[in-house]
Amino acid sequence: MGMYKDLEGKRVVVTGGASGIGLATAQRFVNEGSKVVIIDWNKEELTKVPSLFPELKGGVYADVSNPEDVKLAFEKIDEILGGIDILISNAGISYRNSFLKIDYEQWSKVLRVNLDGMFLCSKEAITRMKKQQSGVVLLTASTNGIEGHPLYADYNSSKAGVILLAKSLALEFAPWLRVNAICPGYVLTPMQKAEYTPKMLEVVNSKIPLNRHAAPEEVASLFAFLSSSEAAYITGQAIAIDGGETAGPYTPLDE
């Protein structure tokens, strides 16, 4: 039994749904009784997910930065779900690289997946939602879109774009559509574990007021809340879930 009764039976699409925050979010909506389809470009991971929770309605392959892929994916979703009520546009990539070492190919790839992907998926979803005059669109941004971080110039720029895309869509399609950007700080995902050694994770945790990374499930719970009628008056916002990281400079104080 889920926490939010009104999410029961809702048709939900989660991009980047085969791992990390996306997988935890898909699982959460399934637990809420929603009908969930995930989109991912990792075919291997995509085939594993249905065995993790059989209640999932489907997994669709697509590279979210490819307009044709996205169009075909949403046509498949029409067949499976008959439409869409909630889009969790979450797919994203990042590389750790100093600015002068970021070549144009890397820059373009990050922007295409992280920002173009949000544009393409939102457009397909909102086109469908407009006919029913209802829906929720949630975009995964990042605290990296709120403040600068070295070694991620491309990622940070893409996520700042995601935040303004969410705000713009919220204004354009109000009052019938709600759109928000979720800005996670450090989350212990496979992507994060691949980039950070345990020592690096320890250093990062020491700078976060709550002294730890978020679990993907904690971010999933924010997606569920913001999709529900409990959040009916929240739109056009960039909501940080970051253990206090963006509250200001943090120095642990001795009692």
Can you walk me through this structure?
This protein is of the alpha/beta class and 255 residues long. The chain has one domain (5-243): Rossmann fold. The chain has 8 helices and 7 strands. α3 runs parallel beside α4 (104-132).
Q: If you consult CATH, what is the topology?
A: Rossmann fold
Mean pLDDT: 96
Number-wise, the strands total: 7
- Could you give the order of the helices and strands? EHEHEHEHEHEHHHE
Q: Classify the secondary structure makeup into a structural class.
A: alpha/beta
What portion of residues is helical? Answer: 40-55%
Radius of gyration: 18 Å
Number of helices: 8
The total domain count is 1
The CATH superfamily is NAD(P)-binding Rossmann-like Domain
Distance between the termini: 43 Å
What is the CATH class designation? Alpha Beta
Largest sheet data: 7 strands, parallel
- Extract low-pLDDT stretches: none
Write the layout of secondary structure elements.
Blueprint: E1 11-15, H1 20-31, E2 35-40, H2 43-52, E3 58-61, H3 67-81, E4 86-89, H4 104-132, E5 135-140, H5 153-172, E6 177-184, H6 190-195, H7 198-206, H8 216-227, E7 238-241
Parallel strand pairs: 1-2, 1-4, 2-3, 4-5, 5-6, 6-7
Helix pairs in contact: 1-8, 3-4, 4-5
